[in-house]
Design a protein that fits this description.
alpha/beta, Glucose Oxidase, domain 1, seven-stranded mixed β-barrel, disordered N terminus
């Protein structure tokens, strides 16, 4: 059976859709499944296949360092806008910490439970905050609550019910927030 370009050249097929194209399997860093060097000792190209496999292995391990981590450091319910955002965390534990200039292109605000009561009583502060930042993460909240509707109206990503958010997150931490449908994840970058 001919596959890929050999099939096109030998059968006269002009449309690449008519031919099954296979790509080499991806090799996980440190795995023993080296397709290029196994059982190739009888072939004259065994050294070339081994060096290609070694090259693929090193490229694969380099790529794994730059990709996002597989497991989030925080997870909750997404109730505002969907999307993803990369920025730096600002943990807010007291009302005094709300009185500042916010960088909409970088700030990710994490509320403690104690500040949420203050924001419920001072809705104008919450409204201003949601207009000033792109992401808000809270330790409590409801998917159909007032914070959720205000976040949606202000095009803000909002993740509620994130357990231990203020214990895990630290101000200045560089993270990526991904909110899709009703799930919100926070991934550590550096």
């Amino acid at each position: 059976m001919l596959i890929g370009r050999d099939a096109i050249n030998n059968t006269g097929l002009s449309n690449a859709k008519d031919v099954m194209q296979l790509s080499p399997p991806k090799i996980r860093p440190g795995s023993d499944s080296d397709v290029g060097s196994k059982n190739k000792s009888n072939n004259s190209g065994s050294q070339q296949n081994a060096s290609e496999a070694s090259s693929r292995r090193s490229q694969s391990s380099d790529n794994s360092r730059t990709e996002a981590p597989l497991f989030p450091i925080l997870r909750g319910e997404s109730v505002g806008q969907s999307g993803d955002f990369t920025g730096h965390i600002v943990v807010v534990c007291s009302p005094e910490e709300l009185d500042r200039e916010w960088d909409r292109n970088d700030a990710i605000v994490v509320f403690s439970k104690s500040i949420e009561e203050h924001l419920k009583n001072n809705k104008h502060i919450l409204e201003h905050l949601l207009r000033s930042v792109r992401v808000v993460i809270t330790e409590s909240g409801e998917p159909l609550g007032e914070l959720a509707s205000m976040a949606y109206e202000n095009n803000t990503i909002c993740i509620v019910n994130v357990q231990h958010a203020t214990r895990v997150a630290e101000s200045g931490m560089h993270v990526r927030v991904v909110a899709h449908e009703n799930k919100g994840d926070v991934f550590f970058i550096d």
